[in-house]
């Protein structure tokens, strides 16, 4: 039996306790590493996410597998480095390739498929952006029981009846439910979590906040009137709105007795877009699109009262690839073999690690020996322990000691040849395991853009409450 409870205007089902936890991924879009209070922001208020961090596990060295939106999401959804199936760049419809190659290949299993097989009801709300050129690439064909959102990478935050691109499953949404898109995504998410049924659920809440276009509600803008720069003020207002909507979700889960046994993971799909939205990645240098820390390191918060400690800081490197095996372990489900033989080659089926013993303190080793990044024609990087090798096509190679130089300002490449050789070895060995080549490439324009990412003079300290922060120093 389910009892209806109304919270903030939404009917929520009082669900009976389930042995398996629910899973909720909340993904921000182009959010800066330093733009949460719990990650040092002095300008942007995020009280809900700050409370989540204090009641859960806050990761200082959380990474995503891609430095731009679509490849990062492809890795998250598959639990595999996206280079394994040719998804290295943002989608490029102008590149001469077959439609069935422009996205996550249809034969590739997603996290929704795995959890559906494990007895879960599955849904996605928000941004898809991993392929829509053929019907077999769309969410409802990829293991998701429910989809509401847009297939592409961006959307106006004030959708109009005849000008929006929002879909409910396979049909265009007929009417505007609420004027602001972040609020609308939240309402759809709460409906999904409240649906009657005896199955546990998995929801991917894929906000497009605070991705461009820079649009915020009037009342949220007024809250940040003290910020001089209009773009930064709008960004802060969008962040505030997302934070408050996450608060509504937590209230709803608590009222329906689901919060205790729901594993929530919050992070961003890549680093903040400093020039486009005045995001702040301080103390990290770089931004979205680069292999500097500001492009790939993101806030990572884990919250599961029934299964994880509260008030813990975790400092070892983790990556978004870890979500799939972690969720499967929490669900009591088995992962398929990590590798399978295809001819003479071993194909790696999944790349992450089950983080539960690490986040709980049961295993004090580092979850990963090394982490890897690559975008053909842009560069690559590898991190092993405190050391990071960065190979950018526009600048000399660099070696950084992230333990003592998190801002990556001191290039030690010429001072530690033995470490350089070892990290090159890691990178070469990893690339040897990749069974595919890029299925498409980005436009030539992005080469000039890429070079500038390493030339900008970034803020490496958090701006104060009233500082005129505009992203990069003028």
TrEMBL record:
Record protein name field: Sulfatase
GO molecular function terms attached to this record: arylsulfatase activity; metal ion binding
UniProt-listed InterPro entries: Alkaline_phosphatase_core_sf (IPR017850), Sulfatase (IPR050738), Sulfatase_CS (IPR024607), Sulfatase_N (IPR000917)
Segments forming domain Sulfatase N-terminal: 21-333
Keywords, sorted A to Z: Calcium, Hydrolase, Metal-binding
UniProt key word Metal-binding: yes
Homology family: Belongs to the sulfatase family.
The UniProt record lists the keyword Metal-binding: yes
CDD domains, per database record: ARS_like
UniProt xrefs under Pfam families: Sulfatase
């Amino acid at each position: 039996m389910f009892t209806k409870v109304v919270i903030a205007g939404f009917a929520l089902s009082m669900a009976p306790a389930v042995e398996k936890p629910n899973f909720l991924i909340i993904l921000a879009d182009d959010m800066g590493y330093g733009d949460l209070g719990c990650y040092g922001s002095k300008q942007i208020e995020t009280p809900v996410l700050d409370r989540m961090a204090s009641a859960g596990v806050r990761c200082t060295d959380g990474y995503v597998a891609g430095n731009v939106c679509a490849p990062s999401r492809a890795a998250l959804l598959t639990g595999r480095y996206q280079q394994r199936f040719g998804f290295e760049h943002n989608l490029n419809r102008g590149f001469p390739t077959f439609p069935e190659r422009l996205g996550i290949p249809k034969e590739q299993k997603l996290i929704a498929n795995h959890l559906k097989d494990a007895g879960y009801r599955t849904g996605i709300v928000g941004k898809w952006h991993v392929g829509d050129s053929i019907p077999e690439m769309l969410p409802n064909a990829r293991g998701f029981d429910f989809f509401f959102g847009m297939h592409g990478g961006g959307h106006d935050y004030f959708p109009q009846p005849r000008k929006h691109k929002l879909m409910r499953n396979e049909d265009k949404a007929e009417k505007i439910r609420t004027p602001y898109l972040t609020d609308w995504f939240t309402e759809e998410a709460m409906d999904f979590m409240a649906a009657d049924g005896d199955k546990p659920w998995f929801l991917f809440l894929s906000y497009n906040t605070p991705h461009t276009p820079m649009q915020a509600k009037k009342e949220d803008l007024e809250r940040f009137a003290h910020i001089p720069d209009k773009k930064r003020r709008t960004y802060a207002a969008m962040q505030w709105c997302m934070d408050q909507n996450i608060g509504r979700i937590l209230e709803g889960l608590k009222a329906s007795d689901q919060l205790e046994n729901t594993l929530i993971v919050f992070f961003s799909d890549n680093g903040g877009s400093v020039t486009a939205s005045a995001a702040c990645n301080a103390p990290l240098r770089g931004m979205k699109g680069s292999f500097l820390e500001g492009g790939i390191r993101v806030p990572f918060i884990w919250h599961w009262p029934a299964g994880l400690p509260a008030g813990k800081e975790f400092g070892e490197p983790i990556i978004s690839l870890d979500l799939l095996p972690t969720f499967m372990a929490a669900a009591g489900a088995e992962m398929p073999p990590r590798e399978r033989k295809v001819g003479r080659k071993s194909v790696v089926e999944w790349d992450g690690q089950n983080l539960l013993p690490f986040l709980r303190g049961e295993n004090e080793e580092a979850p990963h020996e090394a982490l890897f990044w690559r975008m053909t024609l842009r560069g690559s990087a590898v991190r092993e322990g405190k050391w990071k090798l960065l190979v950018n096509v526009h600048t000399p190679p660099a070696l950084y000691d992230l333990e003592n130089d998190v801002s990556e300002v001191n290039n030690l490449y010429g001072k530690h040849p033995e470490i350089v050789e070892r990290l090159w070895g890691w990178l070469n060995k990893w690339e040897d395991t990749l069974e595919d080549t890029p299925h498409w490439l980005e436009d030539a324009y992005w080469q000039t853009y890429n070079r500038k990412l390493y030339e900008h003079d970034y803020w490496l300290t958090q701006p104060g409450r009233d500082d005129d922060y505009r992203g990069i120093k003028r």
